[in-house]
Amino acid sequence: MDFKVDVPEPVDTDTEEGGMFRQEVRDFLDKELTPEVVQARELQRDRPYDISPLAREFYRRLAAKGWLAPKAPHWPKEYGGVERSDEEQRILFEEFAARGIAGGSEYGGIQGPVIMRHGSEEMKREYLPKIARGEISFSLGYTEPNAGTDLASLEMRAVRDGDDYIINGQKVYSSFAHYATHHWLAARTDPHAPKHRGISLFIVDLASPGITIRPLRTMGGDRTNEVFYDNVRVPISNRVGEENQGWAYIREALGVERIVMGGVPVVGGRSILDDLIDYAKMTEHGGRPLAEDPYVRQNLAQLVIESNIRRLFNYRTGWLMSKGVIPEVEAAIAKVWGNELDQRIGHIGTQIMGLYGQLESDSKWVPLDGRVEHRYLFTVHLSYGGGSHELMRSLIATRGMGLPREPR
Amino acid sequence: MDFDLNEQQEMLKRAARSFLNKECPKALVREMVHDGRGCPPELWRKMAELGWLGLIFPEEYGGLGGSFLDLTVLLEEMGRGCLPSTFFSTVVLGGLFILKAGSNEQKKDLLTQVAQGKIILTLALTEPSASYDAASVGVEATSDNDDYIINGTKLFTPDAHIADYMICITRTKKETVPEEGITAFLVDGRNPSINRTVLKTIAGDKLCEVIFNGVRVPKESIIGGLHQAWPPLENTLQQATLAKCAEMVGGAQQVLEMSAAYTKERIVFGRPLGSFPVIQHYIANMMMDVDGIRFLTYEAAWKLSEGLPCTMEIHMAKAWASDAYRRVTALGQQIFGGVGFIEDHDMPLYFRRAKAAELTLGDANFHREQVARLI
Question: Are residues A3 and B6, on separate chains, in Cβ contact within 8 Å?
């Protein structure tokens, strides 16, 4: 048993090559994580759906090193992957965790592993190198007005026409669609099969004719999108894997997505909770520092403990992945835990701020740039987005402890 | 980063589980609640033979030289099995204090006897003021030539009724910062000037009121130096707190497993209880609670074993475990319903012990406050 991640040098367990690799990673991060990038990523941490060019450039450079998705299984050089030893994989993971590098999943962190396992040879050679170089990005096209938690009910239709499919329908809550290059699209290819067995998965160029993207503003002011497909022509070669086998691939992709969602929203090692703690120490209400109020002390301490549990849950997921497993149950645990904790931080943070907790980011007198108020609003969707927590808890119990499934 | 136990720890875990399954059935656990001693001598002897009592003492004192992580593995199994024994008071409270504060002769003499199962120890610290801080030590030891005379009442002292020796924490200097006037004395448990009464507790553990009526002890019985007991005592309390968390990991895990197993067998409305999402959610919440206790405890234990600072981690572990183990037992009771409410069932054993553990060595509020001070 070994919890050595945050322990400062020397890291005795590195081999010589490992030590050199670790230094290379540290040098790169020291150089790239400039204050401007850190600030851009801070904004992105708080507003993940509005990504700044600076933050995007950072992720592109990470991808160019082949380091973008350190938790995802690495893939071979012939597909543009950077072959890494298990030790290098672990070192990347540790260094990233210590600096709080999360996010960037829209650069193929979810799609890469699925393409690797199920894509045709042609698809792998076409897309994996571009993902590895950070040249393309993805928006998820799953949810529809009538298909959210019950995703398998989706109605978007893909009909074969010669060497293409013609796709019609509508997606909603397709975040990042306004700047991503591609849509990772789920559509029905066999309307007569049972619903789970008639779905296919596609990679669609979002510049294709017939695609209309309309903005939706969420509570908290972030942008997501409706995406309309009007007779959009997509080549067969853009279909991921086998026709009508899409549901299995989507389940894998969802598993990877959850690992990302449970991740710690920190930048450069500091989280919004760290900022709240500093705020409590420096701010007085009623003539007394907030940090001396027993309620504040108890609640901040509890959030620190729960954040520490989140950290350990994420390490466990990463540790299992480094053994070559996609840990469905553990990823779901990390997601449920992390996202509900995010909600608690937003609620308690605004509560601690008292009257100031209601000020929005562009208001006079707003504390911490309004990030806590925004977080309170933004985190509401995390307990159903990416997998509703009701479904997640059932998944955890049935696949984790063997409880029988609910009969359908 | 590696969440697996090493091979020796795996072996210890398996051996402990199978030993306790055989030697410590729940019928024995219940019997010991009503038994005067509360710990079967035969069981104690067997534990000594297995080397458990000296697990973390150095080999020169008859121990096995194991790490705190090894001890954590063992304590988890003890918590899982609800082991009624004087292990915690003797090895953790008494033994760790002597290891930290004792002179070479004291360590050699006492720890060797502990490892061999020859003596039962305890630490008499808490008093009617029910606090673990230095300022709450009111029992006084006043000097009289080469002796000291101890007067006062200790309360909630575990196993004092059968302890061969009690380490009594006293105030020997008053005009000073509280932490600087504390002295520990090794007191013969059979001293006739000590009056002991076993309290009736929710977990059936033998916590005692101990009244010291002019108990005379020689100055050689001081452990850790005159006025100097607080630093090693504080260190011992930290380790004991973590040891308590280790027990809690085992108990919580067992409740989770018992409850999950029950939901698969119990049929309600024509289908297994566990096929209802509400029940699945209870189990999922229990799983997250148990994992939280486990990871916080084991990370702290690893750091302690590596000689790394872990005060914050220990406070976090106990704060979390205090609430989480209790929650797990409450959900377990809810899942079992009426059958789990009957005293003969296993659930009450854990429900009661979770509350006792919550309140011992600092509850959630206390440890959260310590975390607040450290952040």
Answer: no
